[in-house]
Amino acid sequence: MAEDRRRPGRPPAPHEPAETRDRLLDAAAEVFAERGFHGAAVDEIVRRSNASKGTFYFHFPHKQGVFTALLAHLVDRLVARVEARIAVETDPVRRLDLALAVLVDAFGERRRLARLLLVEAVGLEERMLGIHGRFIALIARHLDDAVTAGSIPDQDTELAATAWMGAINEVVLRWLYDDQAPALAESLPGLFTILLRSVGAHSGSPPRVG
Question: Are 51 and 64 in contact (CB under 8 A)?
Fold first, then answer.
């Protein structure tokens, strides 16, 4: 029954190896990054994953389903990466610095990741809002910590985090589309200064993330 097909995000059944789903997601990432959402085809994802079409539809109901699951998978991994890297930092402003560095560094290392999260999701408004919402919530939480610590003035941290996300988005998009744009690593110092000053904080040298 079509109604019984697996929905994106549902964990595999005991008889169903998680590796198969991961392989489909890896192949989907390659195809969507190369061809865009509209140019991608399920047949190509199936071919690159060495799976059958029946296996694909067992895991995902359609092309948008695998794309939605892929975006959620990538965001989960990126948020976990940020949180893991900043866990050792105790100063809230330095945590903000480092979170921004890890986020922008991840996009700089993987242009494909940036395109999928910031370009190919455009047009899927609900999904795009969800992606931005995850990052906004992460930034707002650490801004709240900075307010509590007295490092920055009391303010609307959700609004500030939304503005931060918009600035990050624009800087990365310029890098993706403009061949004359500086490398993301070169934009970091200025971006840190502008964003941190916008909430009443001052940053020293950007943290190293390599």
Answer: no
